[in-house]
Amino acid sequence: MARYSISDLEQLSGVKAHTIRIWEQRYNLLSPSRTTTNIRTYGEADLRRLLNVAALCARGQRISQVVRLSEEECQTAALSLCNEVQPADFARLNAMLGATLDLDEPRLHRLFDEAIEQLGPEDALLRLGYPLLQRLSVSWKEGSLSVAQERLVAQLLRQELMASADALPLIPLSQADAPRWLLFLPEGEWQELALLFMNYALRARGQQVLYLGPNLPLPDIIAAARTFQPTVLATVLTTTPARAQLNNYADELRKQYPDATLLLFGTLAVQAKQLPEGCLPMACLHEFRDLIPVINQVVEAQLTEK
């Protein structure tokens, strides 16, 4: 049975550790155990209880009233909030997290499908899917969750992004006024969720996209660029290339295909120093979404000059 530290509870629920301690001391909300060194640890029942209580409190209910509810009443009330539109999506996110902890794939799909129906694919992913994945990633890296739970969510997001993109019409290459985006992951890079989001967001806005996917050697990227003639080369860098080789990698891409802007997304990119001219580092998918109309304006200005 999984055990969680109070830091884990904070990461997974979004409730500050200080608040958790107050709720525990004042209302006996949770039932922690203690290690031989007197450190509190919490079980799965504690985590689910906290998720439900936090969801109800986020909707304005008083903690003093919520703690009077039975476990069943608390869970029923929290789940009922998932059908309401909420600014912070707190209840829906916690319900999805509960389904993930139980490895309940049908319930997780149902909750996410309902979110897509109400919010649309992009907002459902940005407001729910990726925050959920981020919470899980932090916890399994610290050893408090199994990798299976993180993989369940990652696979769900991958399926939704691919299905949403496939439902969109392809833009013909003859449409010269649409910017061209070549999307790829470098050789050795396999984490393609952010790239799949880019693919969907671009195609939903009528952009021409060539999606080449993960693990692409540099010569193949250059060959594809010379044929496709993209306006932007976009990639995600989380594990490769090595930090010391990043500038050389960007330099080579710019040297071999200097006509396109090079968009580098991910932790490696934003931490790099002195990237070559024409490189644009980016760490946030919201920021990427805002960039698309800017690129359109640049292309339109270039076409007008011609």
UniProtKB/TrEMBL annotation:
Domain HTH merR-type span(s) in chain numbering: 3-72
GO molecular function terms listed in the Swiss-Prot or TrEMBL record: cobalamin binding; DNA binding; DNA-binding transcription factor activity; metal ion binding
Keywords for this protein: DNA-binding, Transcription, Transcription regulation
Every B12-binding domain range: 178-306
CDD domains given in the database record: HTH_MlrA-CarA (cd01104)
Protein name (record): MerR family transcriptional regulator
Signal sequence, renumbered to the chain: none
Species per Swiss-Prot/TrEMBL record: Hymenobacter setariae
